[in-house]
Structure formats: C-alpha cells, structure tokens
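Comment on the following before class.
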Amino acid sequence: MPRIHIVTDSGARFSNPRLVRHFPVTILPNVIEIAGKRYLEGIDIEPEEAFQLISRQGSPPLVEPPSEYDFAELYARLSHFCDAIISVHPSRELSDSWRNGRLAAQQVSGDCEIAVVDSQSLCAGQGMLIRVAARAANEEDTAEAVIQTVRQAVNRIYSVYCVDNVDFLRANGFMKPSHAVLATHLGIKPFVGLEEGKIIVIEKVRTRGEVIERLVEFLVEFTELEDAVVLQDQTHITEETRLMQDRLALEFPGQHFPFTMYSATMASYLGTQATGVAVLERAVDVFDYDF
C-alpha cells in the first residue's frame, strides 16, 4: 500500500470527526479576523465562540488561508516519509488556499508526488472529499489510483443552504443590495448552492416549514447517497434538524443523516444563521446500467 498523507485546512467539517483521527490527516488552521483580533480557527477559537463573536459584527470576518510558506513547510516535512500527499482545498473561487498549495508544491523537490485538489466546495463538502481520500488510501494499490479516485469524487459533491439573514450574502457580493433589501423586507430566506465552486442564490423560501421541505426535496433527488450530513448553526441538535431527520428516515430507510455545526470559515460567507445539507453521491459504475 502506498504511504499517503492528506492535508487540508480548518474550514473543513466532518460528519464524524473521529473517523478522520484514524487516518494520516493534517489540518492547517485558517486565520479568522473578527473585530480586529486574529484567531487560529480550531486552535484559538472553537465554532461556538466564533459564531457568537461573528454574530455581533455588521460585516463578515476576514479569513486568511494557510500561506504558501505554511503549505511548503508541511509538504517538505511530510515528503520525507510519504509516497504521495493529497492536499484538499476549498473552492479556488472563494479562497486562495488552492493557489497557495499549488505554489508551495512547486517548491518541494523529491520523489513524493503532491496532488493539490480544488474540492469546488467548502466545509462539509471539503470534509467528504477528505474521507474519500482516506478510504482510497486504505484500499487502492497505487498513489495514482488514490489521486484519481479523489479527483473523480469532486463532481459528486453537492451542498445547499438556507440563509436566514442576508447581510453577509450581500456584503460578500452573492446578492445584489436591492435584492437583499427586498428579501429582508419581505421575510424571504435565500436558498444558496455551491455550483462550480461558486455560491449562487438558486431560489427563495419564506417559512421554516418550507426550509425543511426544500432541503428534503434536494436530498430525495439522489437515488444513491455515499455520504450526507445536515449542517446547522449550533452544536446541539435543532428542532429543524430533528424534523428533517424524521422526514429523511421515511425517504431513506436505513440511511443515517448525522448533523454538525458548519465551520466559522463557512460562516464568513453565509453568516451565523443558516441550515444546509451536503451530499456525496455514490459513484455509478457502467455495469450498474441495464443495456
């Protein structure tokens, strides 16, 4: 089996963090600046405290990904005992993390292959790709096969969120100011998705019931789920998540839908009042089709 190490940043979230601890994964922290104070995400500040601080601000916090130097130093250290490094990054449309990783990889010499992967996602979608990489590293015979498995999984990850407060969507340029004002006035909640690595407003809903209904409808569109997680804005299960799990239990008998709090990095884009789901669709083999 090839010796593979996985690298990512602290914006990634996992449906079951304990599983990741069993694999060779290194998480470099993002720097989050809130009200002029800088924190290392997951080290200096946990999501609950970060959300509390962010919610008091009128503008999104600044998020600084690991630098080119941070990645280069880590890659060089890992390259001494690895056959390959798979570095999984948030969407290059939303972060400089992928760019920094690419520049860093060019500085590392030696026989260790470094695959810098744009997940075209954030948060839980990014975490799902890391789980794919970890599982493939235990199953595949070559580093090339592992890297190919990871890259192929990128296009099978989908995420949608319903956002209660549009302030951060407007500030980040995801909603026009006039649309944001109208949405606030009418009590409309934007429904956003990650499409080709970009955050796009895809529709709008009005009530909590419609939020649950729309998220369930999104999941029902998939016939085979390899992984799925509900994202919420607190650590303890919300009533909204509980109702969603009850509905999903009827639609997907035997399928588990865990929940987790989305990352502070994700909150810098959406704000601290959102509910969402992330999905990894099962890979379809050509032999699954009837000819």
The chain has a mean pLDDT of 91.
